[in-house]
Amino acid sequence: MALARDPDETNGARRLRLIYNPTAGGLRRPLLDRAAARFAAAGWAVERTETARAAHAEHLAAEAAADGDVDRLVIAGGDGTIHEAINGLLRVVPALPLAILPMGTANVLAHELGLHRFEDAVEAAAGDALAAIWSGTANGRHFAMMAGVGFDAHVVAHVDTRLKRRIGKGAYVWESLRQMFRFGFPRYRVTIDGETHEAASVIVAKGRHYGGPYVAAPAARLGSPSFEVCLFLRRGRLAVLRYGLALVRGRLAGRRDFMIRTGRSVTIEGPVGDPVQGDGDIIGKLPVSISIAERPVEIAVGRGDRSQVGVKVDSRSACN
Question: pLDDT above 70 covers what percent of the chain?
């Protein structure tokens, strides 16, 4: 797809490629126009292109990283589009610095980075503060925030995408209710750095947040090359309801039937072919081996909560 170059681009400016998902739940063209104007005011020459199909953002991100003329990649979309972009960026050495404009259903990575308002994300994307974040890999597929096996993965696997476009998070609530009567609640064998546990569901977390603003793994840090592995020990419909209520009330970590272990290498075994979700998309099937990526991704951060990451100044931006 041809790139759309904004008319106020000037020769010699730093180049920013803005990739956006036109089907993302919160996408509004006027917002993109405002963002592009802010980038231009900060000295960026902006090129825009939109995704046209599933996994297109991954291809476009790899292409941008391989293009020696691009200085930063901005992704406007939801967690799924960002997930694709990170997988594309990490194909290329060195990867481009990344910035995000959250426009999806949950925007979990944006919550983790403290980018709660669109304007905050625009300022971060235009600025010079970068942080190195470590993604995880599940059978070779990168994820930024979490990988899940069990109840939540079955919800993600069966959620109606058309309903999701209409009612957003409500589609996940509806599918969760359906899965409570369809899911078989098997046990999973989870090995974390050689130590084995059994669990009813598992979330391998890189960040604190889950499902948007809710905190599942309080000690998780994007800037740390390790996981916080959340083990849901109790099975059944009532357990799912209790875990969900504890999550939204901020009390999940205090439950006796919930355990968190830190590690760098995780394997999960269970019913062969069971889905594995990563950042809200299905990225594989059981059995799965999960590890820390070989190298981090640099991402633009704002003035919000920087305790999650180590921040440095991008000299390519600061000198302009």
Answer: 89
Q: Rounded to whole angstroms, how far apart are CA atoms 182 and 177?
A: 9
Q: CB within 8 A of 146, min separation 6: which ones?
A: 108, 203, 204, 205, 206, 207, 210, 216, 278, 279
pLDDT score of 306 more than 70:
no
**CA distance linking residue 306 with residue 302, whole number of Å:** 8
Inform me whether the pLDDT recorded for 190 exceeds 90: yes
Instruction: For residues 88 and 207, state if they share a domain.
Output: no
Full DSSP string of 141-161: EEESSEEEESHHHHHHHH--H
Which residues form the domain of 204? 141-292
- At 317, is the pLDDT very low, low, confident or very high (cuts 50, 70, 90)? very low
Give me the pLDDT at residue 147, please: 97
Kindly state whether residues 120 and 150 are assigned to the same domain.
no
**Cβ count near 315 (within 10 Å):** 10
CA geometry: angle 78, 136, 197, nearest 5 deg: 115
- Contact (Cβ atoms closer than 8 angstroms) between residue 286 and residue 270: yes
Tokens found for residue 61: 């991100």
The pLDDT of residue 227 is above 80: yes
- Name the more confident of 117 and 262: 262
Residue type, 218: P
**Cβ–Cβ contacts within 10 Å for residue 109, how many?**
26
Query: How does DSSP classify residue 253?
Result: G
Provide mean pLDDT across the span 192-205: 98
Q: Are residues 128 and 158 in the same domain?
A: no
State the Cα–Cα distance between residues 249 and 10, nearest whole angstrom.
50
Structure token digits, residue 24: 């993302």
CA angle 197, 203, 207 (to 5 degrees): 125
Does residue 5 register a pLDDT over 70?
no
In this structure, the answer to whether residues 94 and 228 fall within a common structural domain is no
Q: How confident is the model at residue 169, as a pLDDT?
A: 86
175 with 231, same domain: the answer is yes
Cβ(227)–Cβ(292) under 8 Å?
Answer: yes
314 shares its domain with 232: no
